[in-house]
Amino acid sequence: MAYDIAIIGAGPAGATLARLLDRNYKILLLDRRDLIDGELSQRTKCCGGLLAPDAQQMLGKMGLAVPTNILVDPQVFLVRTIDFDNSLERYYQRFYFNMDRYGFDQWLVSLIPDNVDIAMGCRFTALSETREGYDIAFMFQNKIFTEKVKVVVGADGAWSNVRHQLFGKSDSLRSYISIQEWFETDENIPHFGAIFDSNITDFYSWTISKDGKLIIGSALKPDNNAKDKFEMLKNNLKDYGFEFGRCVKREGAYILRPRKSDILTGNDNAALVGEAGGFISPSSAEGLSFAFNSAYALAQSLNEGIEGFQPRYRKRAGKIARKIMLKQLKSTVMYNKTLRGIVMRSGILSSDVLF
Ligand SMILES: Cc1cc2nc3c(=O)[nH]c(=O)nc-3n(C[C@H](O)[C@H](O)[C@H](O)COP(=O)(O)OP(=O)(O)OC[C@H]3O[C@@H](n4cnc5c(N)ncnc54)[C@H](O)[C@@H]3O)c2cc1C
Questions:
Q1: Which CATH number is 3-345 given?
Q2: CA 133 to ligand 1 centroid distance, Å
Q3: Probe residue for ligand 1, chosen from 275, 289, 296, 320 as the CB with the greatest number of ligand atoms within 8 Å
Q4: Phi and psi at residue 280, in whole multiples of 5°?
């Protein structure tokens, strides 16, 4: 048996798991991106790069503090909520860290101990069950390699190939396609913008200022109209007073909006963490705290021994799943035009803006 544990994906979930696993395990961590010294265009995950309070708390609990060199301008304290359905606008206090997402991923990878074999630029392609666990196959520089592992962990994000191979067609995940465009702008908007417009999406859209650029993003139903809806969003924002110039970057990624049945932890020789397991907020799409929490729960379960780790992980992940279901409940208010209108009109928990 070459490896005890192979982790597919070195994003926040995979890198955290690799850092926390017992050093006596023989561990392989692979990622199709090169998070150490690859080309920038191929390294960056499409993300808002906002570290929310739950994720900050979890980092603190794990004894970590964010290095300042991964923070970007500006740091924001208010969410400007624009509700096009009800023609309402309100500000809400929320403390985010505005980060360079690639720098964040790279920092998490830099914390992984030396006993973990890190293979960057390796794309996982397939797994097949063996008596002791799995054979995994991956591509590196157009060549296929295989490794024997006792436990395979899918930390490969929203469009998880590991999950697909384990659960196949029976798995009907609710995913959205998110599009983000980065624009030149002279304005440095001091708020994170959350935009609700049911003509665009039944989820939400956002604006974030980052290092002199304005990001406009939206989580859209993955159909043929997604591109048109995104164009409509940009036009609506221009009409609303947003000023932005030339588009300098366009990116896209799947993003999950999990229901209870979408949360899967794996089987006796395989586990899913982070977005691959369905661990992300269905109300705000905040995923970093869920990536850390699920990775921590799996590390605890594996560190008590490989034998029987899955029921232990399922139990610990149950707590995270319940939190996701609470967020689901919050969604029913947030994404109902009438209820959202009542809450916003009431001004409850909102903040006045003086300038
Ligand atoms: C547009 C957008 C904006 C978002 N904004 C925020 C935000 O501001 N704050 C927040 O908290 N959350 C945000 N999220 C959610 C957050 O990005 C994710 O939930 C989080 O990154 C999940 O971490 P993860 O490690 O599970 O997966 P990922 O970060 O997706 O990492 C998966 C890793 O697996 C690798 N991989 C995938 N397939 C393979 C393969 N076949 N072989 C090898 N490697 C593979 C990838 O290269 C990647 O490194 C956003 C998501 C999107 C799409």
A1: 3.50.50.60
A2: 26
A3: 275
A4: -165, 155
